[in-house]
Amino acid sequence: MNRRDFFKFVGIGGAIAGVGALMPSQTVAGRKGDLRYEVKPGELDDYYGFWSGGHSGEVRVLGVPSMRILKRIPVFNMDVATGWGITNESKKLLRGKFVGDTHHVHGSYRNGTYDGKYLFVNDKANNRVARIRLDYMETDAILDIPNIQGAHGLFPQRYPKTEWLVLNAEFQIPVPNDPKKPKEKYYGVHTIIDAERMEIVCQIILEENLDLAATDYKGKYSMANSYNPEQGVTISEMLAWDHDYLIIFNWEKIREALRKGAYTMVNGVKVIDGTRKTGYPGLVLRIPVPKNPHGVNITPDGRYAISSGKVDPTCTVVDLELVDKAFEGKIKPEECIVAQPYVGLGPLHTTFDDRGNAYTSCFIDSTVVKWNVKKAIDSPKRSKDAIVDIIDIHYQIGHIMASMAETKEADGKWLIALNKVSKDRFLNVGPLKVENDQLIDISGKKMKLVKDEPAWLEPHDCIVVRRDIVEKNVKHRHDMFEHPQAVTESGIVRKGRHVIVKMTANAPVYGLQDIRVKKGDKVTFIVTNNDEIQDLAHGFCISNYNINFVVAPFQTKSVTFTADKPGVFWIYCTNFCHALHLEMRSRFIVEA
Ligand code: RUQ
Ligand code: CUA
Ligand code: CA
To answer: Could you confirm whether the keyword Transferase appears in this record (predicted)?
Structure first.
């Protein structure tokens, strides 16, 4: 036994009897646990993986199981390779904010599974929500959320389809944000967003902070774990109580409060009171769970909500059918808890297979713990009886996600462990090392680690979506006239001191060879790639003018700036598009 295993054994202590059943020598029953994970040259992956990019501000698309990175979708960041943040179109969405922190990326749903239409992602840094269109895999809307800080848990409605999104505010603040307010007047906020219009429907304020988010499979409830109902502003205050809450929001009551006008307007948003004493009746249910919980995930059958202990080594299983009764006042909130299995130290998130098993990430133990939900319900609270298998990961796991696990079509094939620390798993690249996303085959009884994948800071969470759901919706070219200024014929229009240059890009030429303006003119370039050929992007860079973007097939982008430097400036194509790509250039002549 090596040192690490020794410590683990000591840590698990009394679990040794349970762990005995997990010894590697045991034969594997049931499904084989030997899924194909090598994707050979020319072959395609079985799943699209969508990763939040953490404080890089982006979203990444990976192929699973190869773990090849296929695309980086700029969202809250500036991306020079695509020109995101530089063009008029992207500036309009970003409004000058290029710092983001994407934590939770989720797809839009219909009937409890992904419909392949949109992704949604939060920005914890600047309190925004972005929507990505999956047909182009590009960001198409960004919504600023007032009255909140720490925009964290985000989840779309799963049933009957995604009309609403919920967003949890992890940090409590005064609403409105008045610095004179004492901390007892700081609130957590549950924001409801119209997913199609990307508008705020309303906000519910309460004393508790709201961390991770989930919605049920019936369109009735959304939820949040709260680790700071104490309204603490220091770490010791946040750890003061021996229990915190899993909080459930009743959507019928939210709609009722809106209909009855039971809200006040704060910064243009309808704010409903959800506080303990004066809150709208029947809207919020607080289920006590052990100290400083993390995560809330719903079993694919829709029956149970599971929140992890974080500071406590258990998971808490809440029966959503009992939640109905608790809202009706027939039982107490704590009576909704049907199991509390011991899983390990530092449990954070839970994911699922299609065979009734849950997989919980344990940060401190650096393990993934597979446990059976039914077994946990039949076992005494805090017992280890429900544990089926434990696997070491490398190291310090945060999020965890199995293929299709956030849908009713969970398929129990692949599991991703998103590990915060890689230590010695890759070549040393200096003090700031990559993270380690590990691919685990969960198709058999025992979990099997098959791949390490370095991940640049800081992929936070992911979803793994069956290829057939997404692939059919992804387009090869833009719908050209979706952009109202799409250029079919090149030309220059002068309106006083504003020069509007319309240009086509068609390999290997731009629609205009020379563009002449006067120093001090305001210049707008509108560029449309009207190449019919698939997969042929053109770049548009103006030398020494700090302008550089690409236009995908049939896409239009524009840029407006002041021609403040006289001289001859070559406009050139940055994206290798043709044998004469280097000759694809035009002169931008700024007369003194
Ligand atoms: S939280 S590591 Cu931002 Cu997703 Cu749990
Ligand atoms: Cu167009 Cu290179
Ligand atoms: Ca607490």
So the answer is: no
SS3 assignment, position 441: strand
211: CB partners within 8 A, 6+ apart: 152, 153, 168, 170, 224, 225, 226, 227, 293, 294, 295
Q: Indicate which ligand has the atom closest to the C-alpha of 245.
A: 3
pTM: 0.94
CATH of domain 480-591: 2.60.40.420
Q: Which residue in 207, 209, 323 sits closest to 273, CA to CA?
A: 207
Asked if residue 253 lies in contact with residue 195, where contact means CB atoms within 8 angstroms, the answer is: no
The token pair that represents 183 in the structure block? 């901390």
Residue nearest (by alpha carbon) to ligand 2 atom 1: 538
Closest by Cα among 87, 205, 203, 218 to 160: 218
**Would you call 7 helix, strand, or coil by DSSP?**
helix
For residue 576, the ligand 2 atom closest to its alpha carbon is 2
Between CA 53 and CA 61 the distance in angstroms is 10
pLDDT in tens, 531-541: 999 999 999 99
Q: Which residues line ligand 2 (CB under 6 A)?
A: 507, 538, 573, 575-578, 581, 584
At 12, the pLDDT band (50, 70, 90 cuts) reads very low
Name the nearest CA neighbour of 153 among 50, 43, 247. Answer: 247
| Closest atom, ligand 2, to C-alpha of 536 | 1
Q: DSSP 3-state assignment of 542? A: strand
Architecture of the structural domain at 47-471: 7 Propeller (2.130)
Strands 509-510 and 69-73: unpaired
